[in-house]
Amino acid sequence: MGEGLAPCLAGSLIWRGEVYEDSSPRTPYSWVLNGNHPQLGFHAVGIIFFILGLGTLLPWNFFITAIPVPTLSAMGFWGSARDEFNFNNWLTLLSQLPLLLFTLLNSFLYQCIPDKVRVLGSMSGILLLFILTAVLVRVEMPPHSFFSVTISSVWFINSFCAILQGSLFGQLGTLPQGYSTLFLSGQGMAGTFAASAMLLSMASGADAQTSALSYFITPCVGTLMSIVCYLVLPRMAFFRHYLERSWQRDPRNELETKAGLLGPGTQGPGELWGPLLQGDTSLPPAWERVASKPLAMPRLIWLLALCIVMVFTITLSVFPAITATVTSTSESEFFTPVCCFLLFNMMDWLGRSVTSYCLWPEKRLWLLPLLVGLRFLFVPLLMLCQAEPRTRLPVLFHHDAWFILFMLPFSLSNGYFVSLTMCLAPKQVLPQESELAGAIMTFFLALGLSCGAGLSFLLKALL
């Protein structure tokens, strides 16, 4: 969480293990090097962004986790009727299409509408729609009507989520890298939170309607907490400190967070930072080349964008459309909530959290597409588990242990590669371009989700 603070607190610039004292304390950047850093509140800001990350993915996770649970048949749809509508696939696809469209829109309009309006407006819309979903638990509706209302609600909720997620990723680009990891870790926890809420509602012994009502009230409380946290955020001195620096739109104000940008074979500290420390106000040559070509920024992060598309295309092609239909040899009603949703989300969260300590292969990004591409192997492996109904492919892995064995690395790698790509992207661009970089990466994230959701129809038909 405190990554990037060490150079400030030490009163000097650290480069590859060597210390360069500040020889120009009266420069406008002396607060970066002399320790005038608002340390107070950086833990609180981290907690707030963790909760905001949790809130961005609560809607999606609470809907998909509800798919296989028979106790929610009180809502008029979940049960055997869902197969008639191919509900798993449609829910996945119509969740991701608005995410893609509105993320693209947010990439163009992020400078026209203030962050506060976009974030609070989106969270308020999500809250109202979840309240509506909870109310519908008590309303008797035929399956066709319930399908239409639910899909419409999912469409609008994910439209708001797209704007919310893109806006928050943009703000994270102005903070040290550790906060992106915390935000993504909060997103990973959202699935575990939803799966735990479902298991509690199933184990409570309450009637079906009461269980469904309590289940869908939970994300309302979570979204309300996110709204409160976002309202508190501007009051934190640590957050205002970095926000004001981004407003200055001066790339030299990010010395401590950009010190690790250049790899072996690039300019050393003397060539890059020496003129600045001696009072020279010109931009370093490496930055001037990028600043002169704003349209070159997407090319700097195209590799990471490709990787995140691949990650989510693979994941959404089988999760939850295929994995939620895998049946247990023990015929336990808790098998899918535990072994599919809870296991996936816990390992996904763990994978996202690992990037707090390890960002491999940060220095060899050319390896990343190869590693991500290996995840395609999980698609046939999961399809050959005991997913029902099926008419074409045989079942090669009957035992529950095989499914669990495949889900562990599948979900862990998903969380790690998602967090890795989103954390590394802002480091490839100028500080004032970090919000746009966050919006672009969020668009490619949504593109991967949409591709995976569309591919799930084909894979489901191949079963």
TrEMBL record:
InterPro entries: ENT1/ENT2, Eqnu_transpt, MFS_trans_sf. One of its GO terms (cellular component) is apical plasma membrane. Its main location: membrane. It is found in: Basolateral cell membrane. It is a multi-pass membrane protein. GO terms for biological process: adenosine transport; hypoxanthine transport; inosine transport; neurotransmitter uptake; thymine transport. The chain crosses the membrane at residues 40-67, 87-105, 117-139, 145-169, 181-200, 212-233, 300-322, 365-383, 403-424, 436-459. Pfam families: Nucleoside_tran. Keywords: Membrane, Transmembrane, Transmembrane helix, Transport. It comes from the Eukaryota. GO terms for molecular function: adenine transmembrane transporter activity; cytidine transmembrane transporter activity; guanine transmembrane transporter activity; neurotransmitter transmembrane transporter activity; purine nucleoside transmembrane transporter activity; uracil transmembrane transporter activity; uridine transmembrane transporter activity. PANTHER family: EQUILIBRATIVE NUCLEOSIDE TRANSPORTER, EQUILIBRATIVE NUCLEOSIDE TRANSPORTER 2. Belongs to the SLC29A/ENT transporter (TC 2.A.57) family. This is Solute carrier family 29 member 2. It comes from Terrapene triunguis (Three-toed box turtle).
